[in-house]
Write a structure and sequence with these properties.
The structure is a homodimer of 146-residue chains. Chain A is built from six helices and six strands. With 146 residues, chain A is α+β, with helices and mostly antiparallel strands. Chain A folds into two domains: 83 residues, Arc Repressor Mutant, subunit A, CATH 1.10.10; 63 residues, Ferric-uptake regulator, C-terminal dimerisarion domain (Dna Ligase, domain 1), CATH 3.30.1490. In chain A, the strands form two sheets. A three-stranded antiparallel β-sheet of chain A has the order 1-3-2. A three-stranded mixed β-sheet of chain A has the order 5-4-6. In chain A, α2 packs across α3 and α3 crosses α4. Chains A and B meet through β2, α5 and β6 of A and β2, α5 and β6 of B. Chain A binds a DNA duplex (30 and 30 nucleotides) through α2 and α4.
Chain lengths: 146, 146
DNA sequence: ATGAAAATGCGAATTATTCTCAATTATATT
DNA sequence: AATATAATTGAGAATAATTCGCATTTTCAT
């Protein structure tokens, strides 16, 4: 059975400090992808003494043990989210930036097969698709510019 | 018909400077994902006067018009590559960091279908998979540490 | 060729991230 | 519950990455 993130931290020999618990809980509770600064600001509301360096250190530790992943697509600096066991696909509109979550069991299965064929043990996957959302397609076809 | 990157730059109203041509040609010629600094160093070999700021500015322009994409996965800062019409899948080993390129016509087709179902017009896709490469799986099973 | 607007190079300014080190804290052991 | 010890933290300095400001140069339409 999959143990909680807390167990994972301890099982890897890291200490379960409450700064780490706090940061983790913020990441888990957030639907958006936070960057270090945003995370720091949120964390500070619950622990005004927490340091930005600790946020960075925690993120790098979490990343090392696979609790989170960094997303750097189209952004200027790193954004983080917890790794969910359900891999998801992000469609980002190149015009308005809106993100749509997609999912497909079939595709996930095929990707897993592809990895097995190559003898790669998959831990996580993220599919990042860029293009035009329905609204922006509409806009583009309306403004009939050359 | 798809016009070349040069055409794209001009068609978007940007000037085709030779710094931009140089940077683009390096990106196109490179198989790896370069970061701004590496790109700068390479560019300097052909144009010793080029400035790092120009590299950054070009990258951001290219990104805006969709010529390149930024990859920030697992790295500390942004890496870039030209958007190819052939989407590819990256498998990154979480232990050694080695990248394996994968490809699957079937998966690409399914992803396209998925987008069509949702009325999303795809421009590019990138599948980022993380896990253990064969070598690191071997290592892990050998060192039978609790 | 000429002029206007855009892009460049340079260094300074800003932001993002990492490091150092003394003080604190989590955990295993008693 | 108290203690030892090794990891972690906070604070700010140090470093790295990115952007900005502006004088000069270049592109491109005329």
């Amino acid at each position: 059975m999959k143990s909680s993130a807390h167990e994972t931290i301890k099982s890897k020999g890291y200490k379960l400090t409450h700064q780490r618990q706090l940061i983790l809980s913020i990441l888990e509770g957030s639907q958006t992808h936070l960057d270090a600064e945003a995370l720091f600001l949120l964390a500070k509301r619950r622990d005004p003494k927490i340091s930005l360096a600790t946020v960075y250190r925690s993120l790098s530790t979490f990343k090392k043990i696979g609790l989170i992943q960094e997303q750097g697509f189209g952004e200027d600096h790193g954004h983080f989210e917890t790794v969910s066991n359900k891999p998801h696909f992000h469609f980002t509109c190149s015009q308005c930036g809106q993100v749509t979550e997609l999912r497909s069991k079939k595709i996930i299965r095929l990707i897993k097969e592809l990895c097995q064929e190559e003898d790669l043990k998959m831990e996580s996957m993220d599919l990042l698709i860029q293009g035009l959302c329905p609204v922006c397609q509409e806009k583009k076809s309306t403004s009939t510019t050359s």
